[in-house]
Specification:
Blueprint (H helix, E strand, L loop, with lengths): L20 H18 L21 E7 L5 E8 L1
Antiparallel strand pairs: 1-2
């Protein structure tokens, strides 16, 4: 399990700090996971965000959820 504090990805104005490169891509993926998991009104068939590691090779997506302790979790990727 990873514990990630997204405030480390923000600048002093609250904007995403990394402007390019792997840090920007990882931050984009993490914010997409949070958005997907926290959208409780989304239809269940809505695909998750593209996998950070696999998106260059195929169109793999991850499953997102909120557990019983209100932590956002994501599961292995699978093809859409």
């Amino acid at each position: 399990m990873y514990v990630i504090d997204l405030t480390h990805c923000l600048d002093e104005k609250g904007m995403i700090a990394p402007q390019k490169g792997p840090a920007r891509k990882m931050t984009h993926f993490l914010t997409a996971v949070v958005a997907q998991a926290s959208d409780l009104d989304r239809p269940s068939e809505t695909p998750g965000p593209f996998c950070f590691k696999c998106r260059k090779r195929d169109e793999s997506v991850v499953d997102t959820a909120i557990d019983t302790q209100w932590r956002i979790v994501w599961c292995q990727c699978h093809r859409a």
